[in-house]
Amino acid sequence: MKPHVLCHMMISIDGRVRTEGWAIDDPSSIFETIHDEIAGDAWLVGRVTIERDFDGEGEWEKGLATGPVERTDWFEGKGAKSYAVAVDRSGRIAWKSGAIDGEPVIAILSRQVSDDYLAFLQKTGVSYVFGGDDEIDFAAVLETLNRELGIERLLVEGGGGVNGSLMNAGLVDELSVAVVPVTDGRAKAPSLFDVSGAWAGSRPLELQSVTQRDKGVVWLRYKVLNDRLKAPGPDTPLE
To answer: What top-level branch of life does the organism fall under (predicted)?
Structure first.
């Protein structure tokens, strides 16, 4: 059984999600206020978000493995009220501790990560779940998070590649979007959903609510109608 997956993001009027340089004061407070309101058992982001926003850059301690480390899921502890989940397929985040603001970290890895990196995670107290031999099987990961940690409501909060992978796989149940009244326009800025592999197609959304918030922000909530996927035809442009 997988958790209920709610993708919660903040975007510019043109659908970008990187807030640096936006013409609005303290955009993170807008995002965090709604994050607290919709409340989940865990939140999930990608490696770039962790490195940029949570001090995950730099070199991690090497030379800790004394032999092969078994490729099985490893948990520092269970029973927390909420968890921070980070997708780090290749094993690159230089964790400083096993928690973010008191929430235990769960790293999602491929089995291609090194023994040294697994030894580093164990020393640092970072739990980890294997999502596949090379690429991440998000459906399997979600089932593991539910089964092993009791996570029933997961907030997916970027970046665009992680959001796109889960949406493309038909795993997002609900969408929460705070539209900020600013323009962006940067050609290389990530968008709400960025699919790097084969595109499964377009999914319709059913509007649940529209709310005006402070600073002219409009908060939209949608149900994702995964059973009404429109798969791309042979003449559909995929880029």
So the answer is: Bacteria
